[in-house]
């Protein structure tokens, strides 16, 4: 037995393990496994273990980056922008209001400099090494559907994990294993923005089934911002298929089927979904009575107060995850009135761009916007130059995430996936631009 163990150790220590394989295992584990991790013995059951997982994943990716330093040292414009972005955040962190918060993030948020650094590292690794295959795409969508089914069960009051986790956890509807309806809806929307276009352009039944499950889950989260983002995606998507008659039947099937899903969920919940839709009009009609700040579940009020703070210090950020400290410093009286009126504090801007400006500073915001513009420009060029629908699918995913980010909060379970997928987008159009269709990383959907 001792000899057998010795041989096993010798085999494992002498066997060559490709850094590329390690990177792919880590990146896919972030997408497939990390969002499902919860624990009862942690300060934040839905977040704490996810953060720990990301710290470990980031450490391994950093080690892999060292092993592949010759490749990782090669520069291209998207990498340069991301490195400038990270450098600007480091500078902001040094001069932040609370340096500990800026580095590790707030206890119930966790998006400090370390996690942003892991996002960026994941992006760079994905852009270079991620292997994308039909099999893995289907696996990712199927796993996301498991989360979606759980969302739907929660919508009807079934939540098997609440009895297992700490008693301090309170169910606020369809929060999945993400911990918040807004965050759960962003997670679902990420994969729904892939499954619907995949079915329409590729026609495989698995994508159709995933689309129905994920759309039902999105409805069950009852988050209007993500509903609107999905609607915008559908409108843009229709512009891609309107001149292609061969796609009309599948498009019609999707529209009809999603309508059936909405009707079934609405009828079995005593009109809960239609009531939520009507609340949009009700909020608008009550502006004169409650004020413009009440729009979007008080989001407009948060934006106004945050922008007032930015006006006082437009260039320097307060440090990542430090918005509450900045608001208290710059608009203490406004914040006090807000808390009294709405019974909540402002610790996030509910708009990723305003949040980045307030906490990361103007240079960080500019870097992120430049990165978005560059990627959108390259995707549009690829759509025009190459007869491949995968670029349309990537474009729809990208704009859908951006649309929801105008009214939502970045968080670990979703943002980490977004940055990995963003890297995959960069990889694909760069491979096409370099005319390397035989590259093993090239995706064929």
TrEMBL record:
InterPro entries: O-antigen_ligase-rel_domated, WaaL-like. Residues 211-369 form the O-antigen ligase-related domain. The keyword DNA-binding does not apply. Keywords: Ligase, Membrane, Transmembrane, Transmembrane helix. It is found in: Membrane. One of its GO terms (cellular component) is membrane. It comes from the Bacteria. The chain crosses the membrane at residues 21-39, 51-68, 80-104, 110-127, 139-164, 184-201, 208-241, 247-266, 356-376, 396-421. GO terms for molecular function: ligase activity. It is a multi-pass membrane protein. It holds the Pfam family Wzy_C. This is O-antigen ligase family protein. The lineage of its organism: Bacteria, Bacillati, Bacillota, Clostridia, Eubacteriales.
């Amino acid at each position: 037995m001792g000899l057998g163990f010795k041989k096993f150790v010798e085999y494992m220590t002498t066997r060559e393990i490709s850094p590329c394989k390690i990177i792919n295992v880590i990146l896919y584990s972030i997408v497939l496994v990390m969002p499902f991790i919860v624990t009862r013995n942690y300060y934040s059951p839905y977040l704490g273990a996810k953060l720990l997982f990301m710290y470990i994943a980031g450490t391994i990716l950093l080690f892999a980056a060292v092993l592949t330093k010759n490749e990782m040292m090669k520069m291209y414009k998207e990498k340069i922008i991301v490195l400038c972005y990270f450098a600007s955040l480091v500078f902001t962190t040094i001069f932040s209001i609370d340096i500990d918060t800026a580095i590790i993030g707030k206890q119930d948020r966790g998006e400090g400099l370390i996690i942003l650094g892991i996002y960026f590292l994941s992006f760079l690794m994905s852009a270079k090494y991620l292997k994308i295959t039909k099999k893995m795409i289907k696996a990712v969508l199927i796993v996301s559907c498991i989360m979606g089914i759980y969302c739907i069960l929660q919508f009807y009051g079934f939540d098997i994990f609440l009895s297992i986790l700490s008693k301090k956890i309170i169910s606020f509807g369809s929060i999945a294993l993400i911990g918040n309806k807004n965050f759960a809806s962003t997670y679902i929307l990420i994969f729904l923005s892939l499954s619907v276009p995949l079915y329409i352009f590729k026609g495989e039944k698995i994508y159709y089934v995933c689309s129905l499950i994920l759309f039902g889950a999105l409805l069950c989260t009852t988050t209007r911002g993500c509903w609107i983002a999905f609607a915008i995606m559908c409108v843009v998507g229709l512009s891609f298929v309107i001149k292609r008659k061969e796609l009309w039947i599948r498009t019609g099937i999707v529209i009809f089927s999603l309508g059936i899903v909405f009707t079934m969920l609405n009828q079995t919940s005593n009109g809960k979904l239609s009531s939520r839709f009507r609340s949009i009009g009700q909020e608008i009609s009550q502006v004169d009575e409650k004020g413009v700040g009440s729009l979007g579940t008080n989001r407009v009020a948060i934006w106004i107060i945050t922008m007032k703070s930015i006006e006082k210090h437009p260039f320097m950020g307060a440090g990542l995850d430090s918005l509450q400290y900045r608001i208290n410093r710059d608009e203490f009286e406004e914040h006090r009135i807000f808390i009294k009126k709405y019974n909540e504090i402002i610790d996030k801007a509910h708009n990723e761009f305003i949040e980045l400006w307030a906490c990361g500073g103007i240079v960080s915001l500019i870097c992120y916007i430049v990165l978005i513009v560059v990627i959108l420009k390259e995707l549009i060029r690829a759509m025009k130059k190459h007869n491949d629908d995968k670029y349309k699918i990537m474009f729809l995913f990208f704009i859908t995430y951006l649309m929801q980010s105008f009214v939502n909060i970045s968080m670990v379970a979703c943002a980490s996936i977004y940055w990995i997928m963003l890297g995959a987008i960069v990889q694909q159009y760069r491979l096409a631009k370099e005319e390397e269709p035989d590259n093993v990383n090239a995706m064929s959907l």
